[in-house]
Every structure is written in C-alpha cells, then in structure tokens.
Amino acid sequence: MELYIKELKTEVDWSLAYPVMHELRTHLSEKEYINLMHEMADENYQLFALIDDEKIQSLAGVTIRTNLYALKHVYVYDLVTTKHARSKGYGEKLLSFLEIWGREQGCTNIALESGVQRTDAHRFYEKKLGFDRTSYSFRKRL
C-alpha cells in the first residue's frame, strides 16, 4: 500500500473526507460541510489529503493569501489526522508537503492558528515542525 498526498477537488472527494474533517469540525453536519466547501473552493480554498492504505488519514485545508506582515503565504485553516492514525507522522508529512508546495507557489511563509486548548498541537508545531508562536488571534461574534 502506497502513501500519497492528493488534492480533493470534487464533492465526492469531500464527502469521503467528511468523517476525518468531522473529527476537527464537530459542529458541522455533512450537508453544512459540503455547502461550505463549495463556497470556500470559490474563494480558492484547497483541501489536501494524506492517503495511506487507500484511506484518508490526514487532511489540510489551505489557501494562499498575501498581507503586509506575512507577505505571500500558505494559510492552513484546517489540519486534522484521524484519531486512530495519530502519532504516525502523517501530520508532519502533510505539513512538509505544504511547505514544498507553498514554495512552488511563490510563498515565503506558512501560517496557521490553533485553539488555545490544544497544547499538544502547539508543542507539535513548535518543537517538531519549527513553527514560531507569533501572536494571539482575537474574534468577536457579530
């Protein structure tokens, strides 16, 4: 069985990925998720899957953005590895792929946010992958 990464571009692909994405985005029904995927795809959101043993093991939802502080960069909105496949290096492989892909797209940085409660994820990003914790993110419901 071969491990590979591919972009998921179709509604069929997105449906196959839903059980994994739902582990991260538990508040979304499959219908809500599919509807949002269509909207986000129109805004250049791309979903990449790491597949091993013909099963989606990990997902990364990204877009390329440009702003004054991060310049042209890959922004990771969603990153999840299915519960039964954690600690197998899948997240690291997927982020390493995105770093190479981002450079090929002309990006100078890769950025992501992580919920304040996800201390294990923060340790993974900082210690294992070399990410710097550079800011806090603030949000206000309208």
TrEMBL record:
**Gene3D superfamilies the record matches:** 3.40.630.30
List, alphabetically, the InterPro entries matched: Acyl_CoA_acyltransferase, GNAT_dom
Species source reads Gottfriedia endophytica
Database matches in Pfam families: Acetyltransf_1
What positions does the domain N-acetyltransferase occupy? Answer: 3-142
The molecular function GO annotations come to: acyltransferase activity, transferring groups other than amino-acyl groups
The identity of this protein, by name, is GNAT family N-acetyltransferase
